[in-house]
Structures are given as structure tokens and as C-alpha cells.
Design brief:
With about 210 residues, this protein is of the alpha/beta class. About 40% of the residues lie in helices and about 15% in strands. The chain is globular and about 40 Å long.
Length: about 210
């Protein structure tokens, strides 16, 4: 039996706070991570804008996105990454996940880029959630429709979590009328099951992510 996740009502104040964190980069994010100011950088892919703090975060993210043959063709899967720039390889991986989700959902229309905000630790990500929603963060990842942004953390991220949250973004921006949370969650879990069958993701990852509304 599929259970819908608790809805996350994004208030105006929360949206202003979250949108402020997504200002044109490099951006000083105040005390979002404790001491001092933090400079955020961007990596633009064909379908997304990845927001990150350090090259080490990109290296860890690239290593944690493990793609099988269905997502990463044989030439890429067995060709190795020698000679490729880290940024190019990561962009190719993220776009491969995005396009596979589009294919599974049969929602291939071009939409605006989805922002992916990568936090170096779960505690850092949770701090932003608490500031926005004024309650503890129960998720390892979440997505906010109004700013088309996925929030992830390096400690927990893997291909399945990324695909699940991208599914929410694709569904919400592809359809002319945004579906209710339960319907959107069913579609995101449909993606989970397909990727699990391909050996890419766990079918239970959807229990640890949240969808803003």
C-alpha cells in the first residue's frame, strides 16, 4: 500500500528565505552554515543548475551517483573517466538521471532547469529546513515547487534519491495542472520501482524525502 508523505506547506516567509539562498552566484549565504559567510558556486548542466560549496563536494557527489547500463550506456559504463573533467562527467551523470526519469514518466517536454542545492552535511541541510519551516527536518532530501529546487546533502545522496526528487520537479512542471501530493508521490515511486528493477535505486527511498507545496 502506498502512503503519501506529509505535505510541506511553504509559507511566504519560508519562500523568501529559500529564494534568498538561490540568488545569483557567487552568493554570500550569511550564517547558513554556522561561522562566517559561505560562497556558493554553480555548475550548469543541460537540465539542471547544481549549487555547491567546494570541489570536494562535487567529487563526492560524482562518486555517489552510480549509474547502471540503463542510465549510463555501455560506452560510458566501461569507457572509464580518464581524461574527463570532473564537472563534465558529473553534468553527464546528472543529465542521464534526469533524462531516464523523463523517459520512465513519458514526460519529455523541455522545461526550465531544476536547481539542485548540495549541502556538505545533513546537519547543514537540516539547518536550512528549520530556518524555513520552523520545525525539525524529518527528511534526507526535499523539493520545493515554487522555486523548482531540490535540496540534498552529500552524506545521504545517491542516484535513487536524486531521481526521486527530480521526478517531483518533472511531474509538477510538465503537467498543465499540478497534481495533488498523493498523485505526485505515486508517480515518483513509479520511478523508484523502475530504477530498483534496473538495479539503480531502492524502492523505499521515497519514505525519506519531502515535497514542498
Amino acid at each position: 500500500m502506498v502512503r503519501s508523505r506529509p505535505s510541506m506547506k511553504t509559507s511566504l516567509s519560508a519562500l523568501l528565505l529559500l529564494a534568498g539562498l538561490l540568488a545569483p552566484l557567487p552568493t554570500l549565504a550569511g550564517n547558513s552554515f554556522g561561522k562566517g559567510a559561505t560562497v556558493w558556486k554553480e555548475l550548469r548542466t543541460r537540465h539542471t543548475i547544481v549549487m555547491f560549496r567546494s570541489r570536494m563536494d562535487l567529487e563526492t557527489l560524482e562518486a555517489r551517483l552510480r549509474l547502471g547500463p540503463a542510465l549510463w550506456g555501455p560506452d560510458r559504463l566501461y569507457g572509464g573517466s580518464s581524461g574527463r573533467e570532473l564537472e563534465d562527467l558529473l553534468a553527464q551523470k546528472i543529465d542521464a538521471v534526469y533524462e531516464r526519469v523523463q523517459e520512465i514518466l513519458d514526460m519529455r517536454r523541455k522545461i526550465g532547469r531544476t536547481r539542485i542545492r548540495i549541502y556538505p552535511t545533513r546537519a547543514d541541510m537540516e539547518e536550512t529546513y528549520v530556518r524555513a519551516y520552523r520545525k525539525p527536518c524529518p527528511y534526507r532530501a526535499w523539493y520545493v515547487f515554487e522555486i523548482n529546487t531540490v535540496f540534498l546533502n552529500i552524506e545521504d545522496v545517491h542516484t535513487g534519491i536524486l531521481a526521486h526528487e527530480l521526478a517531483h520537479s518533472i511531474v509538477d512542471h510538465y503537467l498543465l495542472v499540478r497534481p495533488p501530493p498523493r498523485a505526485a508521490e505515486i508517480l515518483a515511486r513509479y520511478v523508484d520501482r523502475h530504477l530498483a528493477g534496473e538495479g539503480t535505486a531502492s524502492p523505499r527511498i521515497s519514505h525519506v524525502s519531502g515535497r514542498g507545496r
